[in-house]
């Protein structure tokens, strides 16, 4: 308790003298240290991919998923501390159901993201500790096209063309910037997302990992789905071949 | 609706008890979509039993620039629901920073009509224009059932003109055609329905907003109804002169 914080990090309601809230920065670190999550918006859809860390070989296949549906149209991907993200997902699903009950129409992705961001803010400041999790929200429809939001532990909520969070986010963002996103369709996005995830892995450290993806776009008729296993493994095969090819050229 | 028992209906001045009759809009409401929006038309009668409380009521209540609600049933209930729903719609419009869809508004009306269905006697038509779906028309009868209609009539006068509307509606009506049908329908209903009457009010809602029109029976433009006249030679033993 000598160097960092020095007493200003005991509550999320306390500012440090230079205007920072340490508790929220620590919560953000929990996301930054988690498995890399990449979100891409292409010309006719949105794909979110995560390099899920498998903490034990004894877990059943596809345990602890990070891709969810808030309703048929809106996908939610949680990065960071799992139980915190899961609680956010439960809240978001509750909000979506409430909206459907009151207005008999599906809640929009923007309204969901806004409502979760508001909840995070209130919960952090007035109720308990910050959430050690971030959430991507994705949706696609014919009129508005693809939409992608990220809600952070601070309650910050921005819409993105593409973004990455977690361990290797900087490398991932560097790769994303090289893509011509508005020319890629959903199938391309799946392949590119797989390539980026695999390319930025740390061969020595990231061993027990598994890629999980969610997609929503023209191909799914605006419904968010977890990307099927065969599509995913085909994308991984393509990515591995592509990376090998790139290595050969060098 | 009158729910008082018969034996309670006598006034007892000594006790200060005077039974009252509900003030209601025994009404004709007509609404119809056309190719750029929606037209609604109403009569203007408000009555308490056989007494006409108001002969120039406006039953078309504006909610936003591009949405109206036409009210029928208890005048008090529907005015109150319209005010409350309008307040909710305004709040959501501010919170969400964009105009609500007509569908959303109809669902907000539904919540009140359904949740308080046992204590309300209110039935409304929600009509308007939004960027998403264009001109729309939602019918909410007593109880909170919602349907989207292309053409509908409600209120006590509606039974007299439902067939007329069915025969007149067709896809892609122009504004003037639609207005003529709606006005004529209100005229026909008012002619046959004892609980409807007064003036005819029309509202046209499109992308540019709402415009209201008024047709008085003593001025040109009021819908004409010419029913076949009865045989004046009946009964034969009474001498009658044609009017």
From TrEMBL, chain A:
<dbReference type="GO" id="GO:0006511">
    <property type="term" value="P:ubiquitin-dependent protein catabolic process"/>
</dbReference>
<protein>
    <recommendedName>
        <fullName>Proteasome subunit alpha type</fullName>
    </recommendedName>
</protein>
<dbReference type="InterPro" id="IPR001353">
    <property type="entry name" value="Proteasome_sua/b"/>
</dbReference>
<feature type="domain" description="Proteasome alpha-type subunits">
    <location>
        <begin position="8"/>
        <end position="30"/>
    </location>
</feature>
<keyword id="KW-0963">Cytoplasm</keyword>
<dbReference type="GO" id="GO:0005634">
    <property type="term" value="C:nucleus"/>
</dbReference>
<dbReference type="Pfam" id="PF10584">
    <property type="entry name" value="Proteasome_A_N"/>
</dbReference>
<comment type="subunit">
    <text>The 20S proteasome core is composed of 28 subunits that are arranged in four stacked rings, resulting in a barrel-shaped structure. The two end rings are each formed by seven alpha subunits, and the two central rings are each formed by seven beta subunits.</text>
</comment>
<dbReference type="GO" id="GO:0005737">
    <property type="term" value="C:cytoplasm"/>
</dbReference>
<dbReference type="Pfam" id="PF00227">
    <property type="entry name" value="Proteasome"/>
</dbReference>
<dbReference type="InterPro" id="IPR000426">
    <property type="entry name" value="Proteasome_asu_N"/>
</dbReference>
<comment type="similarity">
    <text>Belongs to the peptidase T1A family.</text>
</comment>
<keyword id="KW-0647">Proteasome</keyword>
<keyword id="KW-0539">Nucleus</keyword>
<dbReference type="InterPro" id="IPR023332">
    <property type="entry name" value="Proteasome_alpha-type"/>
</dbReference>
<dbReference type="InterPro" id="IPR050115">
    <property type="entry name" value="Proteasome_alpha"/>
</dbReference>
<dbReference type="InterPro" id="IPR029055">
    <property type="entry name" value="Ntn_hydrolases_N"/>
</dbReference>
<comment type="function">
    <text>The proteasome is a multicatalytic proteinase complex which is characterized by its ability to cleave peptides with Arg, Phe, Tyr, Leu, and Glu adjacent to the leaving group at neutral or slightly basic pH. The proteasome has an ATP-dependent proteolytic activity.</text>
</comment>
<dbReference type="GO" id="GO:0019773">
    <property type="term" value="C:proteasome core complex, alpha-subunit complex"/>
</dbReference>
TrEMBL record, chain B:
<dbReference type="InterPro" id="IPR023333">
    <property type="entry name" value="Proteasome_suB-type"/>
</dbReference>
<keyword id="KW-0888">Threonine protease</keyword>
<dbReference type="GO" id="GO:0051603">
    <property type="term" value="P:proteolysis involved in protein catabolic process"/>
</dbReference>
<comment type="similarity">
    <text>Belongs to the peptidase T1B family.</text>
</comment>
<keyword id="KW-0647">Proteasome</keyword>
<dbReference type="InterPro" id="IPR029055">
    <property type="entry name" value="Ntn_hydrolases_N"/>
</dbReference>
<dbReference type="GO" id="GO:0019774">
    <property type="term" value="C:proteasome core complex, beta-subunit complex"/>
</dbReference>
<dbReference type="InterPro" id="IPR000243">
    <property type="entry name" value="Pept_T1A_subB"/>
</dbReference>
<dbReference type="GO" id="GO:0004298">
    <property type="term" value="F:threonine-type endopeptidase activity"/>
</dbReference>
<dbReference type="GO" id="GO:0005634">
    <property type="term" value="C:nucleus"/>
</dbReference>
<keyword id="KW-0378">Hydrolase</keyword>
<dbReference type="Pfam" id="PF00227">
    <property type="entry name" value="Proteasome"/>
</dbReference>
<dbReference type="InterPro" id="IPR001353">
    <property type="entry name" value="Proteasome_sua/b"/>
</dbReference>
<keyword id="KW-0539">Nucleus</keyword>
<comment type="subunit">
    <text>Component of the proteasome complex.</text>
</comment>
<comment type="subunit">
    <text>The 26S proteasome consists of a 20S proteasome core and two 19S regulatory subunits. The 20S proteasome core is composed of 28 subunits that are arranged in four stacked rings, resulting in a barrel-shaped structure. The two end rings are each formed by seven alpha subunits, and the two central rings are each formed by seven beta subunits. The catalytic chamber with the active sites is on the inside of the barrel.</text>
</comment>
<comment type="function">
    <text>Component of the proteasome, a multicatalytic proteinase complex which is characterized by its ability to cleave peptides with Arg, Phe, Tyr, Leu, and Glu adjacent to the leaving group at neutral or slightly basic pH. The proteasome has an ATP-dependent proteolytic activity.</text>
</comment>
<keyword id="KW-0645">Protease</keyword>
<protein>
    <recommendedName>
        <fullName>Proteasome subunit beta</fullName>
    </recommendedName>
</protein>
<feature type="active site" description="Nucleophile">
    <location>
        <position position="27"/>
    </location>
</feature>
<dbReference type="GO" id="GO:0005737">
    <property type="term" value="C:cytoplasm"/>
</dbReference>
<comment type="function">
    <text>Non-catalytic component of the proteasome, a multicatalytic proteinase complex which is characterized by its ability to cleave peptides with Arg, Phe, Tyr, Leu, and Glu adjacent to the leaving group at neutral or slightly basic pH. The proteasome has an ATP-dependent proteolytic activity.</text>
</comment>
């Amino acid at each position: 308790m000598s160097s960092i914080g020095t007493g200003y990090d005991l509550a999320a309601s306390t500012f440090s003298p230079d205007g920072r809230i340490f508790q929220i920065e620590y919560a953000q670190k929990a996301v930054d240290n988690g498995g890399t999550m990449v979100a891409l918006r292409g010309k006719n859809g949105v794909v979110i991919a995560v390099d899920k860390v498998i903490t034990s070989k004894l877990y059943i296949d596809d345990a602890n998923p990070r891709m969810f549906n808030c309703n048929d149209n809106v996908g939610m991907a949680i990065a960071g501390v799992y139980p915190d993200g899961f609680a956010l997902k439960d809240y978001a699903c509750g909000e979506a159901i409430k909206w459907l009950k009151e207005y008999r129409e599906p809640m929009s992705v923007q309204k969901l993201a806004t409502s979760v961001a508001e909840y995070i803010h209130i919960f952090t400041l007035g109720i308990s500790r910050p959430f050690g999790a971030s959430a991507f929200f994705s949706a696609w429809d014919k009129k508005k096209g693809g939409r992608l939001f990220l809600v952070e532990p601070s309650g910050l909520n921005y819409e993105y063309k593409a973004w990455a969070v977690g361990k290797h986010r900087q490398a991932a963002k560097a790769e994303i910037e090289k893509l011509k996103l508005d020319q890629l369709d959903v199938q391309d996005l799946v392949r590119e997302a797989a390539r980026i995830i695999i390319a930025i892995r740390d061969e020595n450290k990231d061993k027990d990992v598994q890629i999980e993806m969610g997609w929503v776009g023209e191909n799914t008729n605006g419904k968010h789905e977890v990307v099927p296993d065969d599509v995913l493994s085909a994308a991984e095969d393509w990515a591995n071949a592509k990376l090998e090819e790139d290595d050969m050229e060098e | 609706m009158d729910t008082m028992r018969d034996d309670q209906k006598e006034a007892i001045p000594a006790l200060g008890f005077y039974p009252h009759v509900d003030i209601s809009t025994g009404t004709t409401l007509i609404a119809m979509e056309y190719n750029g929006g929606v037209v609604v038309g109403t009569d203007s009668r408000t009555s308490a039993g056989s007494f006409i409380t108001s002969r120039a009521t406006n039953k078309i209540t504006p909610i936003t620039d591009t949405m109206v609600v036409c009210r029928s049933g208890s005048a008090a209930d529907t005015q109150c629901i319209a005010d409350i729903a309008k307040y909710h719609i305004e709040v959501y419009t501010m919170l969400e920073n964009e105009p609500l869809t007509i569908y959303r508004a109809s669902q907000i009306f539904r919540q009140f009509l359904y949740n308080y269905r046992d204590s309300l006697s209110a039935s409304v038509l929600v009509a308007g224009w939004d960027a998403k779906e264009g001109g729309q028309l939602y019918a909410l009868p007593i109880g909170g059932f919602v349907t989207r209609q292309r053409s509908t009539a409600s209120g006590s006068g509606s039974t007299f003109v439902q067939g007329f509307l069915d025969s007149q509606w067709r896809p892609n009506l122009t504004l003037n055609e639609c207005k003529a049908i709606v006005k004529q329908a209100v005229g026909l209903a008012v002619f046959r329905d004892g609980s409807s009457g007064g003036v005819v009010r029309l509202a046209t809602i499109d992308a540019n907003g709402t415009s209201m029109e008024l047709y008085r029976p003593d001025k040109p433009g009021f819908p004409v109804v010419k029913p076949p006249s009865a045989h004046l030679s009946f009964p034969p033993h009474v001498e009658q002169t044609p009017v």
